[in-house]
Design goal:
The complex is a heterodimer of chains A (111) and B (116). Chain A has 111 residues and is an all-beta fold. Chain A has strands at 4-5, 9-12, 18-24, 35-39, 46-49, 63-68, 73-78, 87-94, 100-102, 106-110. In chain A, the strands form 2 sheets. In chain A, strands 2, 4, 5, 8, 9 and 10 form a 6-stranded mixed beta sheet that branches. Chain A has a 4-stranded antiparallel beta sheet with strand order 1-3-7-6, with no helix packed on it. In chain A, a hairpin with a 6-residue loop joins β4 and β5 (46-49). Chain A is globular and about 40 Å long. Chain B has strands at residues 3-7, 10-12, 18-25, 34-39, 45-51, 58-60, 68-73, 78-83, 92-98, 110-114. A 6-stranded mixed beta sheet of chain B has the order 2-10-9-4-5-6, with no helix packed on it. A 4-stranded antiparallel beta sheet of chain B has the order 1-3-8-7, with no helix packed on it. By secondary structure, chain B is mostly beta strands. Chain B is built from no helices and 10 strands. The chains are: A mainly beta (111), B mainly beta (116). The A-B interface holds A 32-33, 35, 37, 39, 44-47, 50-51, 56, 90, 92, 94, 97-105 and B 35, 37, 44-47, 50, 57, 59, 61, 95, 100-109.
């Protein structure tokens, strides 16, 4: 199986842009779709990006996703940061046995 | 509105059993794979189990294989997780989520505490 590695924490100021990375340990990042979930304190996770770069209805276009085969990683970019974006963010993919794999999560601080 | 509502969590002693339920509404339940994901206190998300729309395909994380059983009743729009031989490390909030490969939406979660 493979692992997804995320930075433990990132911080940025309101109005700025932040990028959170998710690196796959083995196998190609492009071989299975990557999703991103937002979890605010005390709340259930919500989906902000699915299938690498698709936004569910209701998610603002300030959120975008991409993959980079050269670094074997996926990225979540949030532009025009707002204080309400402060949350934990998890990337997720799945293996050849259809078992989901989650990254360890990144705490985003907007200060 | 697409909605998932979990129930059945609570306090149980090590070695005990618990059955979680997830009631689905607002979509054609029988057309979707469903999943259980858990989160231990202060920790990240951990996939637990998945079941295909017709129950033909079932998968478990190694950490729960042989102890947990996922099932569904499409007539009742409900998903279940039977948890046996519970351990302290199974303490977590358990979320159900609609699949197959990405989770959308998630339920609000139900807390399972395994402690003597």
């Amino acid at each position: 199986n493979f692992m997804l590695t995320q930075p433990h924490s990132v911080s940025e100021s309101p109005g700025k842009t932040v990028t959170i990375s998710c690196t796959r340990s083995s196998g190609s990042i492009a071989s299975n779709y990557v999703q991103w979930y937002q979890q605010r304190p005390g709340s259930a996770p919500t989906t902000v990006i699915y299938e690498d770069n698709q936004r569910p209805s209701g998610v603002p276009d300030r959120f975008s996703g991409s993959i980079d085969s050269s670094s074997n990683s996926a990225s979540l970019t949030i532009s025009g940061l707002k204080t309400e974006d402060e949350a934990d963010y998890y990337c997720q993919s799945y293996d050849s046995s259809n078992q989901a794999v989650f990254g360890g999560g990144t705490k985003l601080t907007v200060l | 509105e697409v909605q998932l509502v979990e129930s059945g969590g609570g306090l149980v002693k090590p070695g005990g059993s618990l059955r979680l339920s997830c009631a689905a509404s607002g979509f054609t339940f029988s057309s979707y794979s469903m999943n259980w994901v858990r989160q231990a206190p202060g920790k990240g998300l951990e996939w637990v189990s998945s079941i295909s729309s017709s129950s033909s395909y079932i998968y478990y994380a190694d950490s729960v294989k042989g102890r947990f059983t996922i099932s569904r009743d499409n007539a009742k729009n409900s998903l279940y997780l039977q948890m046996n031989s519970l351990r302290a490390e199974d303490t977590a909030v358990y979320y159900c989520a609609r699949g197959p490969h990405y989770y959308l939406p998630w339920g609000q979660g139900t807390l399972v505490t395994v402690s003597s």
